[in-house]
């Protein structure tokens, strides 16, 4: 099922401070208690995703959110002369032994000194579990006056989590897919709360869609798409631009032909900078968006390079500390 969601291809929202829009729709500053996760439910698939109640208002929501927070100064991030090298980190870089049993932290190395930006992961693997050293990693980036952005792994909720969150949100929670969308929406708000609590500012949240060991996606791409659809709406409603991190094969394996049409951060695995740069091209489109970052693994670290002319407009993609 090829389904474009043009409403999510929104102008980027530049944020300052802790990010996001203020007001009654914003989540609390303290993340809620994590719910238990387990095997994915196996209900039969519905035939199509229900439309959210305010799909046509997404662009207006984003514009209002942008007007409620101050932009970064125009000269906050000067244009770079060439593509910019960066990194991404998350729970594996936390001191060894923290986190949930399935995702114990590893004490992995932090970015190389040449990295000018860092994209920080918000989760300890699956949704509703925060990165256990998010505040410390944010402080590490801030102290070095690097550019920052955020990403969050998307994951499929178990029955208990759907029962807890499925009725709360902008979708019809009385249907199975609507409940999954609402649960994805709440997963996004949980991550936003974690991010704000840690003081991490970013204009964008990258939605990481790939298999999550021990927290597997369902066998139904329509149900999986409902979760991702809700996640996307949650971040947009909170005042953030969104993008997708994945590869064409991983994306297709989780959500099939579902498309958001948003910017893309494209993974090249344990290859090289040259291969990561090649992923910026049209041959590696994931879900209908333009390539913004290419990622590869080298020397035990995730490294990243900006695509095309992104280095000329860094303020649209990063917060400068």
Automatic annotation (TrEMBL):
Q: What's in the keyword line of the UniProt record?
A: Signal
What name has this protein been given in UniProt? Answer: DUF1906 domain-containing protein
Q: Which domain of life is it from?
A: Bacteria
Q: Which InterPro entries match?
A: GH (IPR017853)
Source organism: Nocardioides szechwanensis
Q: Where is the signal peptide?
A: 1-21
Q: Where is this region: Disordered?
A: 21-55
